[in-house]
């Protein structure tokens, strides 16, 4: 069924998802924070800053008014950075349709509370929203999605009906949408892979090879799963699109902001320089901070995250980080073989 959909956030991901929805025939209102960019999208059907190569469908109409964007819309899709989620929800709460289907495509935790995005959304809107809330995640760079390159993603929700509705809205010949009821696992996997992508970029920036990258991905997945399972995720989610799928794409793609930021750090640039040069959100930086705190709170061993925290926030060099990881004591690969020593 053709729907009126509001997409909140016109960075690369919001713009690409607006394009998918519009090509599926939906009428899309795109909320753009910056009024000048809203005019540009309406007049030129382009978003020069975030997706310069793409021409956008004409059934995307941009507005810088959050009220105009969401009022009366049966479906709202949020694609803002994690640090903006709470404030955006607060600002749009009064205008939302009480029966709205809410999707979010944000990969991160709220740093201050260490909460997942769906928890932040439920706190700001209402606890009942969880029956109409779904997360969209999986290996999907905006730059490829917007030019209709084959892509697979996953939607997760506590409500089967919401999950199926989200799948119907988004799915097409080039954008294949799977469902997975493990909302907790889907959100955690999508957020934590960005930490490992920073590490993979650093490894490449240091000039290390494929062996180091494979080690980071595999041991990264081990610690992502360890924390995720402790926080209530289903183990198999980490073997799926939201887990290993997204880990592969983010650690190996030239499109990845996290990989690119890591690469520059590996070459010896300072974090502030790197973030300034990126000009786009690098979720892995805040997520490293959040995961470091979560790992301490939950007493879960996350050696790669710990080392990256040292590099990002404590002045350790990338090379020292590698030495630290390679110099750790002997241990089992599979912690279930020795659960007492749950080490990586
Ligand atoms: N770019 C991609 O290919 C993908 C991104 N994501 C996730 O989507 C989310 C958004 O990422 P991108 O679109 O890539 O970011 P981006 O850096 O391309 O754009 C960020 C957007 O958020 C807006 N924004 C920044 N601060 C804000 C604030 N305080 N309040 C409201 N809006 C604010 C900016 O104006 C911009 O429109 C992130 O969580 C990211 O991990 C997920 C999958 C793919
Ligand atoms: O989540 C993503 C791809 O699935 C996007 O990753 P980056 O933010 O590193 O570009």
Automatic annotation (TrEMBL):
Chief location bin: cytoplasm
Annotated binding of substrate, by residue: 107, 257-258
Gene Ontology cellular-component annotations: cytosol
Keyword vocabulary terms for this entry: Cytoplasm, Lipid biosynthesis, Lipid metabolism, NAD, NADP, Nucleotide-binding, Oxidoreductase, Phospholipid biosynthesis, Phospholipid metabolism
Catalytic activity: sn-glycerol 3-phosphate + NADP(+) = dihydroxyacetone phosphate + NADPH + H(+); sn-glycerol 3-phosphate + NAD(+) = dihydroxyacetone phosphate + NADH + H(+)
Any one Gene Ontology BP term: glycerophospholipid metabolic process
Active-site residues, as the UniProt record annotates them: 193
Localization of this protein: Cytoplasm
Chain's role: Catalyzes the reduction of the glycolytic intermediate dihydroxyacetone phosphate (DHAP) to sn-glycerol 3-phosphate (G3P), the key precursor for phospholipid synthesis.
PANTHER family (UniProt xref): GLYCEROL-3-PHOSPHATE DEHYDROGENASE, GLYCEROL-3-PHOSPHATE DEHYDROGENASE [NAD(+)] 2, CHLOROPLASTIC
Classification via NCBIfam families: PRK00094.1-2, PRK00094.1-3, PRK00094.1-4
Record-stated family: Belongs to the NAD-dependent glycerol-3-phosphate dehydrogenase family.
Name of the molecule in the record: Glycerol-3-phosphate dehydrogenase [NAD(P)+]
Organism: Brevibacillus panacihumi W25
